[in-house]
Amino acid sequence: MLLPSLAYERPETVEEAVALLRATRNARVLAGGQTLLNALKLRIVHPDVLVDVSRIPSLREIAHEPDGALRIGAAVTYDELAASPLVRAAHPVTAAMGSRLVDRQVRARGTIGGNVCLADPTSNFPPLLVALGARLRVRGARGARETDADGFFLAPYMTALAPGELLDSVLLPALAADQRVGYETLQVGTDSWALARASALVRCNGTIREARVALGCGPVPVRQRAMERALVGRAPTAAAIAAAAALAGEGFDPPGDVHASAAYRTKMAIVMARRAVRAATEES
Ligand SMILES: Cc1cc2nc3c(=O)[nH]c(=O)nc-3n(C[C@H](O)[C@H](O)[C@H](O)COP(=O)(O)OP(=O)(O)OC[C@H]3O[C@@H](n4cnc5c(N)ncnc54)[C@H](O)[C@@H]3O)c2cc1C
After folding, report:
1. Fewer C-beta neighbours within 10 Å, C or N terminus of the chain?
2. What is the mean pLDDT of each run of 10 residues along the chain (284 residues)?
3. Which domains does the chain have, with CATH numbers?
């Protein structure tokens, strides 16, 4: 199917991009285009203008903030994430995700910002960012604001971005020496959509001091607070982690479809949560 006829703008700066979004009521940000171009061809979305942010230099940056957080520009591609020495050193699980995602074409063009703003329930990054306690820097006509990843995903394909706003960057808090990350996915075959995802950030020094666990593939990524509370103060044994995982599933409301029932997805998400915590507590 052919693309519809529409206007195309390629701003040089975030300020120009924000002005374009503000000036045109029915404008849409274009990043890697890996999802948006298909949605245009299928006539699922009908913007009048595409505002291509993929070549704005500041959105391509990866750098440390003064507080030690790693700032990843929204237009950084999966390949760039995977290759970045900064990401590999500070957040190896995030870098590894960039290197494993889908296929070569999507990794070359797809961006972390597009992944987050699409808010597809099956996407890789949302549960990871929620578990990491990432912050999202948003730019709009009123300037910049930051929001927690935890509150950013409102519903499938719906985020807390207001009309005219764009995602500027993703801020990953620095990991302490005793913090580790785990990430697990269940999918059927290597190329299919994920059925269940879970990510965990655990602080452990023989005893678990802090845990953040998020499930993915429900409508939005959800923290598992009962599981987190049950982990804290325990030694990271298989039995303790399994007992805590038995409390997981709260607020997780996946769909049932031809690929898997909702009950199966929930059961598997809990298994992924257990494995993610194990991965985050195993000695490397
Ligand atoms: C064959 C195939 C398989 C895939 N499999 C997976 C998978 O297994 N896991 C996974 O996570 N993803 C998968 N994807 C999705 C892929 O990762 C997309 O590229 C990604 O989700 C969207 O990123 P993009 O940069 O291409 O964004 P685009 O397609 O350009 O944009 C997507 C949406 O985000 C908005 N947007 C983009 N950037 C911004 C911004 N900075 N500010 C505000 N809004 C913005 C756009 O307006 C649009 O609504 C797959 C895609 C394909 C084609």
Report:
1. C
2. 92 97 94 97 95 98 98 98 98 96 93 98 97 98 96 98 97 97 90 92 97 98 98 98 97 94 97 98 77
3. 7-52 (3.30.43.10), 57-172 (3.30.465.10), 181-281 (3.30.390.50)
d(CA 85, CA 25): 39
Round to whole Å and give the CA distance between 74 and 87. Answer: 14
Mutating to test ligand 1, I would choose from 6, 9, 35 the residue with most ligand atoms within 8 A of its C-beta, which is: 35
Give the residue, out of 34, 45, 101, 165, with the most ligand 1 atoms within 8 A of its beta carbon, to mutate for a pocket test.
Answer: 34
Nearest of 140, 163, 156 to residue 221 by alpha carbon: 156
DSSP state of 58: G
Tell me, what amino acid is at 36? L
3-state secondary structure of 280: helix
pLDDT for the residue numbered 193: 86
Q: Provide the token pair at 193.
A: 């959509």
The atom number, within ligand 1, closest to the CA of 165 reads 43
* Short-list 242, 182, 186, CA closest to 212: 182
CA distance 232 to 200: 13
Average pLDDT, the chain: 96
Look at residue 284 in the predicted model and tell me its pLDDT: 55
Ligand 1: lining residues by beta carbon, under 6 Å = 28-36, 53, 74, 101-102, 106, 110-111, 113-115, 117-118, 123-124, 161, 166-167
